[in-house]
Amino acid sequence: MKKIILVFVAAFLLIGFSSFRNLPSTFFNNVAQSQQNNFQVPDDVQKILDNYCLQCHGTEGSGKAKFKWNFDKMSGLKTSKFLSKLAKISDEVKDEQMPPKKYIKKHPEKVMSAEEKQSIVDWADRLAESLIAN
């Protein structure tokens, strides 16, 4: 009985491994690429992030932000997770959820201009589009 089970397990493993050989090389390239989402933050966007966002969302931010920006870790995320974060940034800024109204009441100097908001949204959307295109 043990021999029959071993034969079935060996056959199962053999079939499983042989199916990996038939995967196109682009599959493995996409998996590797998903681990390396190299991106750059333009200077104008970085200035906006520094002035309005990173005081709470930075890795050493003092605010109660649910999401912390850690650019070193962001580049290592899977593409789907990275796209999700970019969409959230874009949506939160478009919907005027960030900076939060409570924060603005305490810090009126942190009201973002329409141009600054649009710069953040455009950057996040362009970066997401470039990831999807690759």
Structural features, described:
- Helix content is 68%, strand content 0%.
- With 134 residues, the protein is mostly helical.
- It folds into two domains: 1-34; 37-133, no CATH class.
- Helix 3 crosses helix 7 (114-133) and helix 5 (79-94) runs antiparallel to helix 7.
- What is the CA-CA span between the terminal residues? 51 Å
- What summary fits the major beta sheet? none
Structural class: mainly alpha
Proportion of strand residues? under 5%
* Helix content estimate: 55-70%
Low-confidence stretches: 6-14, 16-35
Task: Characterize the overall form.
Answer: globular
Number of strands: 0
Number of helices: 7
User: How many domains make up the coordinates?
Assistant: 2
What does the radius of gyration come to? 22 Å
Mean pLDDT: 75
Query: Helices and strands, in N-to-C order?
Result: HHHHHHH
Features of the shown structure:
single chain, 0% strand, 2 domains, mainly alpha, 134 residues, 7 helices
